[in-house]
Specification:
Blueprint lengths: L1 H15 L3 H5 L2 E8 L7 E2 L1 H13 L5 E13 L2 E13 L5 E15 L2 E10 L2 E2 L4 E2 L8
């Protein structure tokens, strides 16, 4: 589990540094991702890299990206993690525009290295208004 924690920490740091090549180095070539914004799904590293590039461009003042309540479950060469994430951008004069979401990440050991093979970010929504709920309470 230490290797998986290290991978997620390296990935998080790459996001905070807005280093697209380093972000994508953590994914398998055949990654399938369900992100909370834009398209329904992204298949393949190239397609997901284009999406990540758009996301980074939406944060010209800097990025807020935190992982909370990380849980890791591993068996042999497969693992999955779930956590709550607070993410967004830093606007002019340091004002944060960030919100809470939830995430699930699935990993596979490939040629001795853990790679993200599936990622899912989502936000709860209000079924009466069909609007996402970004500021909500955590229930434990």
């Amino acid at each position: 589990m230490d290797a998986i924690k290290a991978l997620l920490e390296s990935w998080k740091q790459a996001v905070l540094e807005e280093n697209l090549d380093r972000i994508m180095s953590h994914y398998s070539d055949d990654v399938v991702a369900f992100d909370a914004i834009m398209k329904l799904q992204f298949v393949g590293k190239t397609n997901y890299a284009a999406h990540w590039k758009e996301c980074l461009n939406m944060c010209p003042g800097g990025i807020v990206f935190e992982l909370h309540d990380l849980a890791i479950h591993q068996a042999n060469d497969v693992a999955f993690c779930h956590y709550l994430t607070r993410c967004g951008s830093v606007e002019d004069f340091g004002k944060e525009n960030a919100s809470w979401m939830r995430a699930t990440v699935c990993l596979r050991l490939q040629q001795g290295q853990w790679k993200i093979v599936h990622e899912h970010f989502s936000a709860p929504f209000d079924p009466e208004t069909s609007k996402a709920i970004f500021e909500t309470q955590r229930v434990s």
